[in-house]
Amino acid sequence: MGFFDSEIVQQEAQQLFMDYQSLMALGSDYGKFDRAGKKLYIEKMEEMMDRYRIFMKRFELSDDFMAQMTIQQLNTQLNQFGTTPQGMFDQMHTTLERMKAELDQQP
User: What is the rounded distance in angstroms from the CA atom of residue 92 to the CA atom of residue 80?
Assistant: First the structure.
């Protein structure tokens, strides 16, 4: 069975995509959130990024041809923006840490 034929992989991919879309839609109102809402949003983003990192690691560790092609395509796309998958995760981590620091400075 191929990597993408796995029902678990399909469910996790779908759930990650839906969660990401929901968080992005919600994030457009981030400035309107109270302190507790901002903290919860940051926590949910961190959780989603952890899940995404684990999901991507599954691709990397798989010997399935399509999984490897997906990693190759991601690397190519990110390279066009001057980054790597690790660079993308590092940038998101930096952004979330900055958001936390700003939150800590609020009364």
Answer: 18
